[in-house]
């Protein structure tokens, strides 16, 4: 750890990559971008999770159409999403190259949250979109709430359509909270740097005042 972390580097060092560096914008940009996508899905997620009112008759059909449209978008859209995700990773790797202790604290924790978000996206959201796009619930044999897998030894079960959509909506909420956590940590880094600058300026003023008194 001591060889990886540059303990001589502080938030006032010239080579410190802090909250105002370009790599920070490489992190904040993708994070806000995906939060915008999740916000656009919130009108669909809200009736499923956050209200006890009965769903409109055509709500599930509209939501299914929306999800199919997203998943079946041209391959260019998926490639752009991958590029944006890796842009965030690149920003983290730049900030964590020969990092200071502040980088390890704020950017390291942000990277952990970012990895959790990517994991939720791949394991829950992408899998849910594939299930909706494949139309597995339109199978005439799918008549129960829980469908047993073709391979009983796999341990995988498929929930009913409404329950699966609720899981997808919950995954969107979890991902949004994780991404907000990334922004909070980056904002915390900015605040910590600001306090360091203020404390340093105050210390310099005290030194100047003490030197004038001696004269």
Written overview of the protein:
Helix content is 70%, strand content 0%. The chain has helices spanning 22-49, 59-71, 75-95, 101-134, 161-214. It contains five helices and no strands. 20% of the residues are buried. It starts with 21 loop residues before the first helix and ends with a helix. The chain is elongated, with a radius of gyration of 24 Å. The protein has one domain (22-214). With 215 residues, the chain is mostly helical.
Q: How helical, in percent, are the residues?
A: 55-70%
Order of helices and strands: HHHHH
* pLDDT < 50 runs, ≥5 residues: none
Radius of gyration: 24 Å
Terminal residue distance: 46 Å
- Helix-strand category: mainly alpha
Largest sheet: none
What is this entry, summarized?
By secondary structure, the chain is an all-alpha fold. The protein has helices spanning 22-49, 59-71, 75-95, 101-134, 161-214. Helix 1 (22-49) packs across helix 3 (75-95) and helix 2 (59-71) crosses helix 4.
List keywords for this structure.
5 helices; mainly alpha; 215 residues
Q: Secondary structure elements and their pairing?
A:
Layout: H1 22-49, H2 59-71, H3 75-95, H4 101-134, H5 161-214
